[in-house]
Design brief:
CATH architecture of chain A: Up-down Bundle
Structural class of chain B: mainly alpha
Largest sheet of chain B: 2 strands, antiparallel
Structural class of chain A: mainly alpha
Number of domains of chain A: 1
Strand content of chain A: under 5%
Number of helices of chain B: 6
Radius of gyration of chain A: 17 Å
Number of strands of chain B: 2
Distance between the termini of chain A: 18 Å
Order of helices and strands of chain A: HHHH
Oligomer: heterodimer
Number of strands of chain A: 0
Distance between the termini of chain B: 61 Å
Largest sheet of chain A: none
Shape of chain A: elongated
Helix content of chain B: 55-70%
CATH topology of chain A: F1FO ATP Synthase
Order of helices and strands of chain B: EEHHHHHH
Amino acid sequence: MDPASAKVIGAGLAAIGVGAASIGVGFVFGSFLQSALRNPAAADGQQGRLFIGFAAAELLGLMAFAIAMIILYAS
Amino acid sequence: MAGKIDPMEQFVIEPVAGTFHGHNPFVLTNSGIWTLIILGTIWFFMLGGMKRQLVPGRWQVAVEGLIGFIEDTVDASIGPEGRKYLPWVFTSFVFLLFANLMAYMPTGLVSAAHPYTVTAQFTITGVMSIISFAIVLIVGFSRHGFHFFSLFVPHGTPKVMIPLIFLVELISFAVRPFSLGLRPFIAMFAGHILLDVFGAFVIQGLQAGGGGIAISVLCFLFLAFINALELLVAAIQAYVFAILTSLYINDAVNLH
């Protein structure tokens, strides 16, 4: 295979991780909303944990994006 | 007609005054100018709200609200001792917030005032996370001495598991400075690449004419939506940096 096209295919495969992270982020916010609607009084106190969970889930997607960028532009 | 889109061009650091030749470290770059503009804006914003009026005006309420917001976050995660660490958490939050938001300002309509994304450089966010971790390590070792290593062994770990748990926790601790600095950097980096690519699609679609115009309109609507999303992400990343910094400092102050 042509190295240039292999590079682009590799970057595309790395981008799958971004989609997987979007599932994770959706799950974090979805679960938060689900429990927040059951007990709205307790929801405000958990916002810090919400964003920690969001950050942890999002980081992995951003890593996948960084890998795609490294494959495309570095080397 | 359809030129190659180069989304990396916007992150290039160029000398404005001085030159990079001969490893000259004293160069005023576009990044440096934009950092100074951000610092000036923060200064202006904070000074305007620090008049300590008995009946606060709108401006003072905005500044006090911002400080109170971070104070609550720090208090909630570190406890009563958190007040000591408020200056750094607040500084990093406000800098990231202003740098992230001002990079999306439409001042680029005048090409000389084109915003430069300061936080899309790992040098900036990386140094900020190194400062956060220097605080964690200095506070941890000065308060607890070598007892600080008990951070890596949670309470009630079975004796057999201690070496393994220690290793896992050590790796998780060692990775934190990277993930802390990487997060705001990549979020801004990715957002600006996305905006650049779709902005180029709009222009190239218009140039192509015919069916291209329909695609161009679609891309423009998507661009407006992404812009709103990126403003949200810009604020969230600053908040996440503040909340994670206070969480890590809490580990150092209170151990587990």
